[in-house]
Amino acid sequence: MAASGQSVVVPRNFRLLEELEKGEKGFGDGNVSYGMDDGDDLFMRSWTGTIIGPNNTAHEGRIYSLKLYCDKDYPEAPPRVKFVSRINLSVVRAEDGVPNQHVVRESGEREGRPPTL
Fold this sequence. Notes:
By secondary structure, this protein is an alpha+beta fold. The protein has a single domain, classed as Roll (Ubiquitin Conjugating Enzyme). It has one helix at 12-25; strands at 32-36, 46-52, 63-69, 80-83. Residues 106-115 have low confidence and may be disordered.
């Protein structure tokens, strides 16, 4: 057990397994889901995500696909994110579907959630 004032560092793959379980079971309003591209990837680097546009927005009913790549320094550094589906957001580059760097929130808090856009 960690001494008072110290935090326990959760290993990268444990954190990713926890996030995989959340993505497979679903959470929130069900508009976001994600999972691994290849179940045999021991390093759990390549992921696929889906976002269903929320009701009462310009994106209502639209389905957006994303690719996420969690490098070896995740969760200290955010994953790389790319929209596979074309999306019209000022914070996403139209030419390649990559969000602007300042948009992907740093995931330096190991106890936090996956980065959000």
